[in-house]
DNA sequence: CTCCTTCCCTAACAAGTGTTTGGTAGGTTA
DNA sequence: TAACCTACCAAACACTTGTTAGGGAAGGAG
């Protein structure tokens, strides 16, 4: 099957991109990892850019499907944050290579080629989802009011996504367990209450 | 003065590296930003690698000077964490380009060339300083005991250093103010206590 | 058997890469 | 004045990069 082979190649490409960085990765390295020659990749893909493009869009599409489901569920602010965090860690589990690539290269890709404009869109959409929920939580009195909300947003956002840099699927903790502990730290802190 | 010019060139190189990534940056771009031609850089530096090397070592040397001072002060676990975080944000303020480079390229550089072995050393030293303090805090009963300590370590570490990806010197908040709010979130959480 | 599609290889291309070599304007020293 | 050092330029080098063109083996369809 044609689509199947593309998927395999994209998976190995994503792995190499995540490990070495997009720019540091050569087409020949991807071909090596896939057991073929560099030129042969161009039977399946139009360019190196097209590969990252497809990797990132596939990831973002699935991510937003999950996020939209959460946001449409009509939960309270705290429960929404909890659900978003859990969904994020599940996504890191499923697409850990794509997430790592997104983390490292998104900004650079976005303002280099208009082709990747959707990455900037995704960032704005992220901000709306997370910041909106946080603001709602502050208004509802479930989150603290003495914090700079934008600082809090970046704190929560980064806290979640950096995990992709060290998380490897099939590790000691399941995504849900990691999400539970992360949420516990973010919501209640690491200091012991007296 | 000779050293002075080198310092200027390293500063502009660091800025370009931080903005575009090490591999995506060409020597000609650095030379452009410095107002000279590519070859002329090689009067001052042996190679492109030597530039990042010098940028990173200068940053790490200063960082460890600060860390060691904190660790030698004989503070309690909570005060040590607070001091380390504050010191880290000061370092992000002073060396924000170097920190951004370290964040993005350290792992990749470390396992590519033995020249950058000190980056792996730095990571181990980081772990000892942070993890040790956290363990001491758990033993002393100032930090929670129900969390995976290694997860907590990565949480605190990443939480602090990702800030380099968005922080720009001279922004709304001073390093000390950011450190204060970060510490407040990490230690006490963002949820409102009842 | 023949035709056609799928999937890959061989071989090369042009552009861009880090780096080197030889030279030179201008200031400092003797 | 002469010798010298500093800081740069001009031009090229060898190599790697992403990409392309043409071809061919394998296998299913008619």
Automatic annotation (TrEMBL), chains A, B:
Pfam families on file: TetR_C_24 (PF17932), TetR_N (PF00440)
HTH tetR-type domain segment(s): 3-63
InterPro entries hit by this protein: Homeodomain-like_sf (IPR009057), HTH-type_TetR-like_transc_reg (IPR050109), HTH_TetR (IPR001647), KstR2_TetR_C (IPR041490), Tet_transcr_reg_TetR-rel_C_sf (IPR036271)
Keywords: DNA-binding, Repressor, Transcription, Transcription regulation
Record-annotated DNA-binding residue ranges: 26-45
Protein name (Swiss-Prot/TrEMBL): TetR family transcriptional regulator KstR2
PANTHER family with a match to the protein in the record: HTH-TYPE TRANSCRIPTIONAL REGULATOR RUTR, HTH-TYPE TRANSCRIPTIONAL REPRESSOR KSTR2
Organism in which the protein naturally occurs: Streptomyces lunalinharesii
